Amino acid sequence: MKFLESYCNKLLKCEQTVSQSSEVAQFFMPKDRDLQPDFTKNSIMIMLSEDLPDGEGGGDGTHQHAGNITHPFVTQTYRCVAAYETKDTKNRPFKVAVDEKLDVLIKDPA
């Protein structure tokens, strides 16, 4: 989200021919489905990690170490072929159902 916010801020600071173009206006216009209250029912929400330093995650604003996490990441979408249940790295329950789609962050080797 930080990268998207940075991109949008830079885009809006461009000269008027760019920042007020129809393409930029269209980029920021919500789609009909975005405004439907049930749009997120079958969606996957990606929550920011509490372990990222201030400004990069959903933490409480105190600086925390991110361990060996580095950027950049690539996102890959997978479809579950079988139900699966486990616990995440913070010992919280994690479940997926058959045919559920998951966006997985993968450390980019580049």
From TrEMBL:
Protein name: Uncharacterized protein
Gene Ontology biological process terms from the UniProt entry: superoxide anion generation
Listed GO CC annotations: cytoplasm
Organism: Etheostoma spectabile (orangethroat darter)
Example of a GO MF term: phosphatidylinositol binding
InterPro entries, per database record: NADPH_Oxidase/PX-Domain (IPR051228), PX_dom_sf (IPR036871)
PANTHER family for the chain: NADPH OXIDASE ORGANIZER 1 (PTHR15706:SF10), SH3 MULTIPLE DOMAIN (PTHR15706)
Domain of life: Eukaryota
